[in-house]
Amino acid sequence: MVRRLIAVTLLLGAALAQEAKPLFAGGHQLEAHYPLGRGVSYTAAKPLAKALGLGYYANAADVYLSLGARSLRLPVLSSPRAALARPRDPLAYREKGEVLVPVKRVAEALGAGYTGNAASLWVTLPAARLADHYLVRGPGQEQLFLRFSRDVNLIQRAPGRFLVLGAEAGEAFIPLVGETLFGLELRPDPLGLELTLLGAETAPLRYAPVPRGVTFWIGPMPPETRRPRVVVDGGGGPLSQRVAKAVVARLRARGYQAKLGGGPSPAARAEAGTRADVFLVLSDRGNGAVYTYRPRGRALALEFVVRGREALLLGGAPRALSRSLAPAEASAKLAGDLARALGIGRGSAEIALLAWAPKAAAMIELPRGDPETLAAAIESGVVAYLGGRP
Known about the structure:
By secondary structure, the chain is α/β, with parallel strands linked by helices. It has helices spanning about 1-15, 45-50, 80-85, 105-110, 240-255, 265-275, 305-315, 320-325, 330-340, 350-355, 370-385; strands at about 20-25, 30, 40-45, 55-60, 60-65, 70-75, 90-95, 100, 115, 120-125, 130-140, 140-150, 155-160, 160-165, 165-170, 170-175, 185-190, 190-200, 205-210, 215-220, 230-235, 255-260, 280-285, 290-295, 345-350, 360-365.
């Protein structure tokens, strides 16, 4: 009898532990839920992001949360059962129009503390404190780096004026000796710290998060001197080779950097595409279509490409990253320009040669036609994508 009573008590305690709990985050009270009684706490993503000062973006397939240079992408599934298929790596799910995310996984990924007991949960971010600053003067441009005690998010309030969410500092003035900048003005704010770059109010200004800090560039951007690079892989058959050579010749005549791709192995062919602003793979197979890469049964894309594209999507990424990577939408635009120029349809598939391309990439199944005519159409599509600039 005593054993039965203990067992019932334990089961009742476990059931109570799976009920919704108050979740305290950044001074706000939210609610944590335990779908299916699996012991994994979930809460609505958007209120959690607002409470902690996180960057938030969601679409039909994924939700992105960011804190400075840290970011987390979670696929959004249709049910909690699917999201909890691997309890050690829980995913997000959608319910009644809201996206719910696993609280502990979000906290650990973004550097927040996660604690709790049978009554409630807490997600905490320590106050960010300005630890140091560095000003580098270059020809026509200055670079200011601010180092904080943790990663931070910024909101621009006005030219040269920013809110650093969750940061703490007393009212202060920090002198700077620059061509444009002459000081930093710090003011406490209910949401964090207001930071003004004195002297930069009317100057071109860009900023980007870096680990435990933020970098500002003040002054005009140096002119872009590098011409776009196009690589055309004609390894898909005799017609493809003839068309590829003609496309390269046409683009070179227009002033573009254009070269033939290819190689003795798929890896060598793919490597050629990693150095291109536009990477085209031509094939004799099919009845005419333009394909972009779509992950399917296996994710072939390189992790740094995936994470870099997430950073571009969330905004504020340094310019150097945008020179090395392009968002996934770039390939979609290229495919659209090529399909219109060739008068053929579009599709997507898990094509390994496209998976590792960091910028715009597409495979063209050539329709029947004269090689020079096809090459002229492809040239037109590439030029339309690049905006006509050599």
